[in-house]
Design brief:
Radius of gyration: 26 Å
Structural class: mainly alpha
Strand content: under 5%
Strand order of the largest sheet: 1-2
Distance between the termini: 36 Å
Number of strands: 6
Low-confidence stretches: none
Largest sheet: 2 strands, antiparallel
Order of helices and strands: HHEEHEHHHHHHHEHHHHHHHHHEEH
Helix content: 55-70%
Shape: globular
Length: 417
């Protein structure tokens, strides 16, 4: 009996290996995999190139050379952004403007504290009307009240958000947003973090996730439908383990493929950028970068983990649904359309005001976490208020788990034609 169990386990392992071999030996899949690697390398290069440093002679450095100069300049301001530091930034900014004949010359002198200057600009600008030159005209003492201003400003941002979406917020939702703003520990810490900013504050990460999920769709679309395509379904289902272990092997192969391709792509993209631009600033809060208004109080490192985990769960759900469609339709072509439809279409439909609220619940939102952490995506359920991603991540994880038995028994009960 023990020998039989060991033999069956080895057989199942062999079946999984066979299914993986079928996936990655296809010529079209190899070409697509090479394309994905090329896109990943290109995306990382573009993200690195976006790092810029302006020299005193007017020339522009980009990429690694720029990062080295920025690290030296920004770390001069390394430490907590206290009221005194905020005052000093305004004074240094004014000195840079007064001692410069042109705007570009002033920009060169303030590159070390440009992120802090930007925080002041965002904090004191009118909602929806960002003023890049606000820091040039604000008083040092007023700038020192940035953290208080941020909490006060939430009401203005709520009103602007309601006017834009047409959806009013309940009293509990307003209180929740206020508490989230107040829970941010200040003063914020500042240091060089161009590597994390290039990785998380750009559009390349979310774009790469979308491309990755579409490409993985090519890999897994034929796992269940190929038996019908090659007219081998009668043999497959009449085999001794055809309607149980063999189906499980296909599902395991699909899960391994999705997991391996997704994480290899995301980690390769992240590693290239961080190794070349530096890991410094991982403990910096995202509010010191582009996401000053975010209700997610995360460091850049935790933000990266949060974004990749959310993207992984969204990818699992969408591609599991794609495999289920391939079972029902018996077509790889139809299955391939699912990743594209769910990762791309909602993004455009969400621009229609009447559909925005509904589209915010679609799984594609998990592929764009780094772009939506500034949005007030909150929901009141049973008298309690939740942030959007506090609902979406467990929701689609649960739906993915529920799809597993549906896929298994759906394929098991397929009738041979």
């Amino acid at each position: 009996m023990y020998f039989y169990i060991i033999l069956e386990k080895r057989l199942v392992k062999t079946m999984v290996q066979f299914e993986l071999k079928k996936i990655f030996q296809k010529g079209v899949n190899r070409i697509v995999l090479i394309l994905l690697v090329a896109v990943t390398l290109a995306g990382s290069c573009l993200a690195i190139r976006d790092v810029r440093y302006y020299k005193e002679d007017g020339s522009l450095l980009t990429g690694i050379k720029a990062a080295r100069q920025l690290k030296e300049e920004q770390n001069k301001w390394k430490g907590y952004i206290t009221e005194d530091v905020l005052r000093q930034v305004v004074e240094e900014n004014r000195a840079a403007n007064d001692s410069s004949k042109e705007a570009d010359e002033a920009l060169v002198k303030r590159q070390g504290f440009e992120d802090i200057r930007n925080m002041i600009n965002i904090g004191f600008s009118e909602v929806g009307n960002y003023d890049y030159y606000l820091c040039d005209n604000i008083s040092p003492d007023k700038a020192a009240g940035l953290y208080e201003r941020r909490i006060f400003r939430i009401n203005e941002e709520i009103k602007a958000s309601e006017g834009k979406t047409g959806n009013g917020l309940s009293e509990k939702e307003r209180e929740y947003l206020q508490k989230q703003y107040e829970s941010l520990k200040t003063p914020l810490y500042y240091e060089y973090a161009e590597g994390w900013k290039a990785l998380m504050d750009s559009q390349y990460l979310s774009t790469l996730m979308t491309i990755t999920i579409v490409i993985i769709g090519f890999f897994i679309s034929g796992i269940f439908s190929d038996e019908f395509r090659y007219k081998a379904d009668s043999i497959f289902f009449s085999a001794r383990l055809g309607r149980n272990k063999a189906i499980g092997a296909k599902m395991k192969a699909g899960f391994i493929t999705v997991t391996a391709v997704y994480w290899c792509t995301m980690l390769l993209f992240s590693a290239i950028i961080l190794f070349l631009l530096g890991f410094g600033g991982a403990g910096r809060m995202i509010q010191t970068g582009r996401n000053f208004s975010s209700i997610y109080n995360l460091t850049y490192f935790r933000f990266w983990l949060f974004t990749l985990l959310g993207g992984y769960i969204g990818t699992l759900f969408i591609l599991m649904l794609s495999m289920l469609v391939s079972v029902k339709s018996r077509s790889a072509v139809v299955a391939i359309t699912i990743p594209f439809a769910l990762s791309c279409a909602p993004m455009f439909l969400g621009r229609i005001p009447a559909m925005t609220y509904l589209m915010n619940l679609f799984p594609d939102m998990l592929l764009r976490i780094n772009w939506y952490v500034e949005e007030y995506l909150i929901y009141e359920i049973g008298g309690k208020v939740f942030r959007g991603y506090s609902i979406l991540i467990p929701l689609y994880l649960l739906l993915f788990v529920l799809l597993i038995p549906v896929l298994y028994f759906g394929y098991k009960r397929v009738e041979v034609k």
